[in-house]
Amino acid sequence: MTGKIIELEDVWVHYDGMPILEGINLSLNQNDFLGIIGPNGGGKTTLLKVILGLVKPSRGKVLVLGHIPGESRKLLGYVPQYSLFDHDFPISVWEVVLMGRSGQAGLFRRYSKEDKEKALQALEMVEMLDYKERQIGKLSGGEQQRVFIARALTTEPMLLLLDEPTASIDTPMQAGFYELLERLKQRMAIILVSHDIGAVSVCVDKIACLNHRLFYHNSREISAEDIEAAYQCPVELIAHGVPHRVLKEHPRDRSL
Amino acid sequence: MIDALQYEFVRNALIAGLLASIACGVIGVYVVVNRIVFISGGIAHASFGGIGLGYFLGINPILGAVLFSLASALGIGVLSKRTKLAEDIAIGVLWAIGMALGIIFIGLTPGYAPDLFSYLFGDILLVSHSDIIMMLILDVVIVSAVSLLYKEFLALSFDEEFGTVVGIPAERLYYLLLCLIALSVVVLIKVVGVILVIALLTIPAATSRQFTHNLKKMMLLSVLFGVICAVGGLWLSYELDLASGATIVLVSGVLFLVSLAFSRLRRRRRQGV
Predict the structure, then answer these.
(1) CA–CA gap between residue B116 and residue A10 (Å, rounded)
(2) What tens digit of pLDDT does each residue of B107-133 get?
(3) Chain B interface disruption, residue of A74, A85, A89, most B CBs within 10 A
(4) Of B73, B157, B198, B266, which shows the fewest CB atoms inside 10 Å?
């Protein structure tokens, strides 16, 4: 093992003959926090699924924690896109979070004491312990997002994958969400994927641009040229400078 | 009705109603929360091919129904998961092929097909002792599979992809769930018939959905509603001399509409306060 969390070398993915990912090279060290931005349909979710082993690349090499993807899945935490589940589903917060342990618990078995403890710790970590018995659909978007993060944390992952995590969170809740990510990045590597440049630039250490091809310089810097190449049109860098005068200190004027 | 209990066929009918309620209560909840009502409808109708085959081969038509409903469950599952065929097309094709095969087999069978109507529309008063034993065995299979795999089926129903990520064999379990639906269909055929099976797999679970946000409670409530509908429908059909299967379905339909009105009223009152 090289000590790298992930290593991708010249990875290509095709759907119906159309390339979705083209020659992706990417590596991530322990406790790196990488933000990936790019337009919708640019392959961001596909890239996460390659790392999770849910999508097989048509070419290239992928190593996740030194193993082929899929084998190391239990050491990954995954927070899927918010919109992809039935919000009316009859399930409580507690059941959702425990679900993160269902692989560890094993087929045919009930959740063990350890599973329940880990689920409690995860809920505590995202400050949602008081909502344990609530039905998931009764929570706000931001609260649901925290529950899904808790579910991903129950396996104590070495890498956390977040797919468009800010899409469901209204602006006043976002500051709290970034604080949570700040705490989490002490413990694990994180990849956060978003089409929202502002969301990504707030707390990441490194940033990349993805639109079929990946523009990445292993740093926090991203040039206007990269963004233009990824979006294929000039983009106004309104996010520039924003990261350090973040929302939480912003006085909320309610001039209704 | 009480004096009717001295007849064995009435006692059998009540036992059959209870056994059917268990299958439709437990599996119906998965049908409703997974939104696979029409997959279940497809499986139910396709099983008619097996009933025809049973007549043709001179074996118990229910055995044919087991075969065909399992095959169509796996067929719909594999076609919709493994190919790019849209799920509703897979359902439509197998639904129609199953029915057509049933009609052809029955046509090829010499003589008159006795009880054919009871397979199409159900006749709970015709349930035999051996039918009850078979229903009991299928109920045991269904309930033990669900209690052993409860957390997996919950994960699969709520978020299949996440289930795969944490190491649940989601695709195989989905096929198993479809097979359990197929077995429930067989349990229900004698009670309401191939054509109305979909009602009992949907309505009791949809009714209980109005009252709880917990899957286990939903199952228990569905079983209870199933029993109320089966016994109530049987009694009404006895008193009014109506077809038992259709009466059971109509009773459950009325119960559903009442529960819907009740829960809307409750919600409005809560918002009003």
Answers:
(1) 63
(2) 999 988 778 888 999 889 889 999 999
(3) A89
(4) B266
Map tokens 């630039």 to a residue: A201
How many independent structural domains does chain A possess?
A: 1
| Cβ-based contacts under 8 A for chains A and B | 75
Residues on B contacting A at a C-beta cutoff of 8 Å: 33, 35, 148-149, 151-152, 154-155, 157-159, 161-169, 209, 212-215, 218
Q: What average pLDDT does range A62-67 have in this prediction?
A: 92
Q: Which of B168, B123, B113 is nearest to B12 (CA)?
A: B123
Residue A30 pLDDT: 87
Query: Cα torsion for B79, B84, B87, B88, to the nearest 10°?
Result: -120
Q: Is residue A1 part of a domain?
A: no
Please state the domain count of chain B: 1
The domain of A15 spans 6-249
Nearest chain B residue to A97, by CA: B155
* Cβ <8 Å between A107 and B159: no
Mean of pLDDT over chain A: 83
Which residues of A are less than 8 Å from B209 in CB distance? 90
CATH classification of the domain holding A145: 3.40.50.300
Q: How far is CA A221 from the centre of its chain?
A: 20
The pLDDT tens digits of the residues spanning B126-142 come to 899 999 999 999 999 99
